[in-house]
Amino acid sequence: MRFKKSIPNMFTLGNLYCGFLSIGFAASGEFKNAAILILIGMMLDSMDGRLARMLNADSVLGKELDSLADIVTFGVAPSFLVYYTYFYQFDLLGFAVAGLFPLFGAFRLARFNVSSDKTGLNYFIGVPITAAGGILALLTLFGNFIPNILTTVVFTALCFLMVSRIRIPSFKEVPLPKYGTIVTAFLGCLLFVIYRGTYEQFPYLIYVAAPLYIAYLSYLFVKGKNRKD
User: Fold this and answer.
1) Which of 15, 39, 72, 167: CA 20 to 30 A from 204?
2) What does the DSSP 8-state code read for residue 164?
3) Where is the chain membrane-spanning (predicted)?
């Protein structure tokens, strides 16, 4: 029983470890690897909460651990990624600006955690840090096709959108995880088509994680459809 309750926390810690590895890859100049690890973190983040509910293993520890993991994987790691790929040319100013992203993200997480009306809503107040970090990872992954100025604009916009009062739909009624579903569902296909023949540039884990996650999404979709029937 105790092991069953720790399973969701293992996924959360896996998410945190992906963030750490992403920072390491970015520092080593392997930016696409770093971006993919953030996306894998999105997969794990979308699964831990649902597993906790399925296993009846919700806990205060798990919720706090999830926030700590999110600030690393979707706050610190993307900011390092953007710094090393573009902001580095602005020296100290670029480093300072890149550091704003986890600051805004941490405030967004803290505000969500203390919100008394966060349950039962069909929307988020401000862009979730998971989505914001995933968008920066995608911009880096396909950076060869995206102007640097666009990355700067999106980076700045996401910082303010995270702490804004704009209502973002949560899609709770959709029988799929709400974080990164579209991104992760098509990730394997995109990598195969666009980067076919260059698999050595990417961590092999993506070729294990993507099919398993797509199978997980398919299971949830079928399960949700059968429940409605």
Assistant:
1) 72
2) S
3) 20-44, 92-109, 121-139, 145-164, 176-195, 201-222
Cα gap 76→84, rounded to integer Å = 12
The CATH fold of domain 2-228: Four Helix Bundle (Hemerythrin (Met), subunit A) (1.20.120)
Give the span between the Cα atoms of 166 and 29, in whole angstroms: 36
DSSP structure string for 11-22: HHHHHHHHHHHH
Distances (CA, A) of 11 to 5, 47, 49, 114: 12, 7, 9, 23
The rounded distance, in Å, linking the Cα atoms of 154 and 91 is: 20
The CA–CA distances, whole Å, from 151 to 39, 79, 136, 141, 169 equal: 17, 12, 8, 12, 24
Q: Contact at 8 Å (CB) between 38 and 137?
A: yes
What are the tens digits of pLDDT across the range 37-91? 898 888 888 777 777 777 777 777 878 888 899 999 999 999 999 999 988 888 8
Tell me: the pLDDT tens digits for 163-201?
Answer: 888 877 765 544 444 444 455 545 555 555 555 544 445
Q: How many CA atoms lie within 13 A of 57 on its CB side?
A: 19
Provide the pLDDT for residue 176. 46
**Up-side HSE of residue 180: CA atoms within 13 Å toward CB?**
27
Render the burial of 179-206: b for 16+ CB within 10 Å, e for the rest. bbbebbbebbeebeeeeeeeeeebbeeb
137 Cβ partners below 8 Å, 6+ apart? 34, 35, 36, 38, 39, 78, 81
Domain assignments of the chain as residue spans, ordered by start = 2-228
Q: How far apart are alpha carbons 168 and 97 in whole angstroms? A: 25
